């Protein structure tokens, strides 16, 4: 359904620092798949997400959704069907606006004007319900500026905001990495709930091997711009953290770490 086909990606082209990250890189993600991506630092995880979202161009290859080639489609257009949550809770929310204003903004993503739909009574009630389920007390802080919230509260908001409009794909780039263990767990449970309810095709980059094993139905490990592990279904279910750790250690030794 979402396919990266024969992708080549170079950085610093034409300079002494030119480097080839991906050479003929291929990845095919089925509709409804929840893909966890782990891998060494600099293996190309974030670059892969950026390529999918259209944040960076590729030198060659195709990005396909179904039969449609979106390789040249601008990022803002792709954003209509893709929601993205970043590692930094500050990204994806506007600190100087209230919770209500942020939610209304997200609700109106892709539209030209106004906060109207987001601020009518029914929608406010809907936001309240969404927040009440989180158990973070945000439902009573709708007029509070987002800048004064904790990282976990902001990340929960970012997750709700990015999945508010009818998207098909959810891109999570280490979205629990900056949170304390308890809040990270809460955000992971919320993620899983939203992904299942909305049947989103999801790619989650994480350094947390337990989350990679426990969540999702496919697990990919990347190293130096290559996929060195790709397990789905039963094979993925049967994987234990130790299995991934062993492979991870082998890769690290190969790198001299
Ligand atoms: N804008 C850029 N300009 C030049 N090189 C870049 C750029 N972005 C990434 N790179 C390089 O591409 C490689 C892959 O980086 P990327 O951020 O995709 O890896 P990653 O797997 O997400 O790493 P991490 O786990 O550390 O976040 C690295 O060697 C990095 O230095």
TrEMBL record:
It is found in: Cell membrane. Keywords: ATP-binding, Cell membrane, Membrane, Nucleotide-binding, Transport. One of its GO terms (molecular function) is ATP hydrolysis activity. Its main location: membrane. GO terms for cellular component: plasma membrane. It is a peripheral membrane protein. This is ATP-binding cassette domain-containing protein. It comes from Dorea formicigenerans. The lineage of its organism: Bacteria, Bacillati, Bacillota, Clostridia, Lachnospirales.
